[in-house]
């Protein structure tokens, strides 16, 4: 039986992305029509009941975020879509924007209707310049059909969407940095609180949701939160787009119901990854992005859901699954991850800016074959703890996650297993 | 050879965005693309500052913060090899070596004809085709090329530029 379940990616590649009529042909805009007959609170209730967890990486309950913004009465409110998909190994928002931009637009329009907002922004990373053009054409097409702009579907509700471009900065995926960048400024994160729901874009109340989260809204409105929840895991409803890359036979984006498949299914099942490419054997999979944890063979039977993964120290994150085989050295892999964070740290705070450099230096020394002393390991432990507690935003707070999990999974390979034992995940209580 | 970017052209780009300073990043990306040398000259930055009513320092801050911008001239085309983990462990180093040999330059350099600048970058979000290189906005999977077709791709880019 097929394990894939298509809700958010339904019709991808089968319809003309900018044709409103073809999108309607696969059920498009039924949700917006239905939303007009509902009260805003009812729609928020459905999103709450659906237990839609934020699909960008932080897994914050979308319904909760919506309810908080709804209770704020200041206007205008802004709807911002986080399309700064910069997490290595993640290419799922791209699929939606390239192939089903109207589903994202419909989701945003429903959010606009709920919050009485007139302006939406899609912040798209600079590397996706070509995709920005697809979105612009889709917006134009929706306007022509009176699905965006003034008096949508003959109602008194007006909503417009603008595209804003990034220009190569991973940190802009952090929501407050993203808002700074959307305002045309340098994308460094803001201090929180105040939360973005209260003081967001142009200091006004703002909803920031990921592409996949917003594109899931139409399904929730049409089928109702209860049914959406039942399709997934009791703790987190619906489906997740999973991005398989690295040394698997069939890399790509797959949509799976949460809680119904295991990591092993995703990597080895013919329907998904199809196993390891070439002669090597599976060694590890890096989940959720560079700031996620690494899973070795021992964790392959973990069910792919937010709570099952969390129990074993893993995360869904962005949905990335970067698979590596026996030919890859864990140390070299970790060095690559560390280089990424050194490159992408925005430089605003010391723990992240300097901490990542020290981490990389340490890994580089290990990879040259020198052993770490007891004292050095203790210092490193303190450094990681300081980074995770004192960094300004999620980037620095989580940049040692892969390292910590790898220590647990491959202590022998990281040399001096006895010394590294003390550095297991449990040794670092996170805030 | 290269179309010189004129004041009128820079202003037209800003007009295209309603001279909105909120769209500064997009405006600067367009100016950079139109420059023919993939960089933002101080004269154009100063002009943008004046027209959009923002300090020149702010524009400088943006150009130096975001990795896609350059303050010095580069090749007409930017050739970028992804060095993020999913590409790195699927042959990015080999790909980079091939491109260096083909173009006769090292990372960070520009080919003598001024057409190509070779650089490395972080994930461009096409990891299903890794390892990846980009020529401007187009992504290519290294696995789809052999030495001959790779050379052919760059030759066709050269011919395109000559035709201009």
Describe the protein:
- The complex is a heterodimer of chains A (431) and B (164).
- Chain A is built from 18 helices and nine strands.
- Chain A is α/β, with parallel strands linked by helices and 431 residues long.
- Chain A has a five-stranded mixed sheet with strand order 6-5-9-7-8. Chain A has a four-stranded parallel sheet with strand order 3-2-1-4, with helices on both faces.
- In chain A, helix 13 packs antiparallel against helix 14 and helix 14 runs antiparallel to helix 15.
- Chain A starts with 19 loop residues before the first helix and ends in a 10-residue tail after the last helix.
- With 164 residues, chain B is α+β, with helices and mostly antiparallel strands.
- Chain B has two domains: 59 residues, no CATH class; 87 residues, Glutaredoxin, CATH 3.40.30.
- In chain B, helix 1 runs antiparallel to helix 2, helix 1 packs across helix 3 and helix 3 packs across helix 4.
- The longest helix of chain B has 17 residues.
- Chain B is globular and about 50 Å long.
- Chain B starts with 6 loop residues before the first helix and ends with a helix.
- In chain B, 39% of the residues are buried.
- The model of chain B has no long low-confidence stretch (mean pLDDT 94).
- Chains A and B meet through strand 5 and helix 13 of A and helix 2, helix 4 and helix 5 of B.
Task: For the structure shown, list the relevant keywords.
heterodimer; A: 431 residues; alpha/beta; Rossmann fold; Ubiquitin-like (UB roll); 3 domains; 18 helices; 42% helix; B: 164 residues; alpha+beta; four-stranded mixed β-sheet; 7 helices; 4 strands; 46% helix
């Amino acid at each position: 039986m097929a394990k894939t379940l298509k809700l958010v990616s339904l019709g991808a590649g089968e319809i003309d992305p900018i044709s409103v009529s073809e999108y309607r042909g696969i059920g498009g805009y039924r949700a917006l029509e239905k939303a007009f007959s509902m009260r805003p609170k009812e729609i928020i209730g459905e999103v709450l009941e659906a237990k839609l967890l934020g699909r960008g990486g932080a897994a914050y309950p979308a319904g909760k975020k919506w309810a908080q913004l709804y209770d704020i009465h200041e206007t205008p409110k802004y709807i911002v879509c986080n399309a700064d998909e910069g997490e290595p190994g993640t290419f799922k928002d791209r699929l939606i924007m390239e192939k089903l931009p109207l589903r994202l637009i419909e989701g945003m329009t429903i959010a606009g209707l709920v919050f009485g907002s007139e302006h939406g922004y899609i912040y798209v990373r600079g590397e996706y310049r070509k995709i920005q053009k697809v979105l612009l054409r889709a917006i134009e097409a929706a306007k022509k059909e009176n699905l965006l702009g003034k008096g949508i579907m003959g109602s008194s509700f007006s909503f417009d969407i603008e595209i804003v471009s990034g220009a190569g900065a991973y940190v802009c995926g952090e929501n407050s940095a993203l808002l700074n960048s959307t305002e045309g400024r340098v994308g460094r994160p803001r201090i929180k609180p105040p939360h973005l729901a209260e003081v967001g874009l142009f200091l006004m109340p703002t909803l920031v949701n990921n592409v996949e989260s917003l594109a899931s809204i139409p399904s929730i409105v049409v089928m109702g939160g209860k049914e959406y929840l039942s399709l997934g895991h009791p703790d987190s409803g619906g489906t997740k787009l999973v991005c398989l890359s690295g040394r698997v036979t069939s890399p790509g984006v797959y949509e799976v119901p949460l809680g119904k498949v295991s990591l092993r299914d995703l990597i080895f099942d013919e329907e998904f990854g199809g196993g390891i490419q070439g002669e090597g054997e599976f060694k590890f999979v890096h989940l959720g992005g560079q700031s996620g944890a690494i899973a070795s063979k021992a964790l392959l039977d973990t069910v792919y859901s937010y709570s099952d993964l969390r129990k074993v120290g893993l995360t869904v994150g962005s949905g990335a699954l970067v698979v590596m085989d026996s030919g890859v050295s864990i140390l070299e892999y970790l060095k690559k991850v560390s280089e990424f964070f050194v490159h992408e740290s925005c430089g605003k705070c010391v723990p992240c800016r300097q901490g990542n450099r020290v981490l990389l230096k340490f890994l580089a020394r290990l990879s040259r074959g020198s052993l770490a002393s007891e004292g050095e390991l203790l210092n490193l432990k303190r450094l990681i703890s300081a980074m995770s507690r004192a960094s300004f935003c999620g980037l620095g707070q989580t940049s040692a996650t892969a390292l910590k999990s790898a220590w647990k999974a491959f202590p022998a390979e990281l040399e001096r297993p006895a010394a590294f034992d003390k550095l297991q995940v449990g040794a670092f209580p996170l805030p | 050879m290269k179309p010189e970017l004129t004041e009128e052209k820079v202003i037209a780009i800003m007009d295209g965005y309603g001279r909105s300073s909120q769209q500064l990043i997009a405006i600067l990306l367009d100016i950079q693309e139109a420059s023919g040398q993939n960089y933002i000259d101080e004269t154009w930055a100063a002009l943008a500052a004046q027209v959009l009513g923002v300090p020149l320092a702010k524009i400088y801050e943006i150009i130096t913060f975001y990795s896609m911008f350059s303050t010095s001239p580069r090749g007409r085309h930017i050739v970028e090899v992804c060095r993020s983990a999913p590409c790195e462990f699927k042959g990015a180093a080999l790909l980079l070596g091939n491109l260096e040999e083909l173009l006769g330059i090292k990372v960070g350099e520009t080919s003598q004809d001024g057409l190509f600048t070779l650089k490395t970058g972080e994930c461009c979000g096409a990891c299903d085709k890794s390892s990846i290189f980009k020529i401007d906005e187009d992504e290519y999977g290294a696995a789809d090329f052999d030495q001959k077709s790779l050379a052919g791709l760059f030759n066709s880019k050269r011919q395109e530029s000559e035709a201009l």
